[in-house]
Amino acid sequence: MDDPTTPNRGTGSVAYADRGALEFPTLVASPMYVAPPPDGLAASPGEGGAAPSPAAGEDPRAGSAGGFILAARVVPSPLRDGGQLLITTSRRGPLSVRLLDLGGRQVRTLLDEGAAPAGLHVLGLDGRGDDGARLGAGMYFYQIRSGDDSRAGRFAIVR
Questions:
Q1: Which terminus in the chain has less CB density within 10 A, N or C?
Q2: Could you tell me where the beta strands, DSSP code E, fall in the chain?
């Protein structure tokens, strides 16, 4: 566990991070608010109700009691070689997932189903675009649409 009274001396495996984030497993959620994605990608405000705590890269407004999409997150974050986008939906219905670059251009369609079942959806992220080329290092956004509900979040790719 991190001891805030101990100064960071840069003696760990990464010179600038000998303690802190590297001590925690990848699946630990962060209550940190992440700035919304570019115009046109922002999620709609939630209606309240019980919802899971937002993870790093997740819009904290996700989890609307009346919406289809309850939660979404990318693990691990940041991505190096690959990872997964975990999405939980509350009911059966259409589900589409797109990846966009910082300019809002679509780089990949991960899913486009007319009648996806309710529950957990695990989508593989291999760091490649629709054309099969490796995506460059940087920030990317995911946009999820299900029925009238829409959510967006961000994640980083490091090489």
A1: N
A2: 69-75, 83-89, 93-100, 106-116, 119-125, 138-146, 149-157
Q: Please report, for the domain that includes residue 48, its CATH number.
A: 2.60.40.4070
Residue 45 lies in a domain: yes
* pLDDT tens-digit series, residues 82-95: 999 999 999 999 99
Global pTM reads 0.60
CA atoms lying within 13 Å on the CB side of residue 73: 19
Q: What is the pLDDT of residues 46-57, one digit of tens each?
A: 333 333 344 445
9 assigned to some structural domain? no
Number of domains present in the structure of the chain: 1
Domain with 36, as residue range(s), is 21-157
Q: Residues 108, 68: contact at Cβ < 8 Å? A: no
What is the amino acid identity at position 150? Answer: S
Taking the C-alpha atoms of residue 131 and residue 40, their distance in angstroms, rounded to an integer, is 24
Residues 86 and 92: beta-carbon distance below 8 Å: no
Q: Is residue 12 part of a domain?
A: no
